[in-house]
Amino acid sequence: QVQLVQSGGGLVEPGGSLRLSCAISRNIFAIDHMAWYRQHPGEERELVAASTSGGSTIYGDFVKGRFLISKTNDRKMIYLQMNDLKTEDTAVYYCNALVRVFISSVPTDYWGHGPQVTVSS
Questions:
Q1: Residue 76's pLDDT is what?
Q2: pLDDT value of position 33
Q3: Helix (H) or strand (E) holding 69
C-alpha cells in the first residue's frame, strides 16, 4: 500500500551538505515512527536518526548535531539534512517509516531502497 522512494544521495566533498528525501507514495493517516539508517560496506546497519509522531528524536552518537530528521506536514516526505559531512559518513542510507494508511490501519513498517552517499574530495 505504501512505497518509500528515496532521492538525494550522491557525491559530496568533506564539509559539504546533502539532504536526503524519502517520498511516501500515497496519502496516509500517520507516521508513527520514522528513521534513517546507514550501512557501511561490511558493517551492520546502524541508526542515524529516528523520530516518533510525538516529536521525540534520537540521533546516533556520530551525528553530533550535524544532521536533522524532519517531515512535511502532509506526511508525504521525510528528510535527513546532513551538514559538515565527513568521509566516514560514506554509506548506503535507508529511510524507514512505521505507517498507518488510515486511522484504523495496522501500523506497517516500510523501507526505502537505500541510495549511496559518498563523501570524498
A1: 86
A2: 92
A3: strand 67-71
CA dist 31 → 26, 48, 100 (Å): 12, 18, 6
Radius of gyration of the chain (CA): 14
pLDDT value of position 54: 78
CB atoms within 10 A of CB 118: 15
Cell of 10: 550522491
Q: Which one, of 17, 108, 34, 121, lies nearest residue 77 by Cα?
A: 34
Residue closest to 5 by CA, chosen among 29, 26, 21: 21
Is the sign of the CA dihedral 27, 113, 67, 59 positive or negative? positive
Over residues 16-34, mean pLDDT: 93
Q: What is the mean pLDDT of residues 101-106?
A: 93
Pick from 60, 108, 79, 70: which is nearest to 21 by CA? Answer: 79
Task: Provide the edge-to-edge strand list for the sheet that holds 77-82.
Answer: 4-7, 18-24, 77-82, 67-71
pLDDT tens digits for 49-78?
999 877 789 999 999 999 999 988 888 899
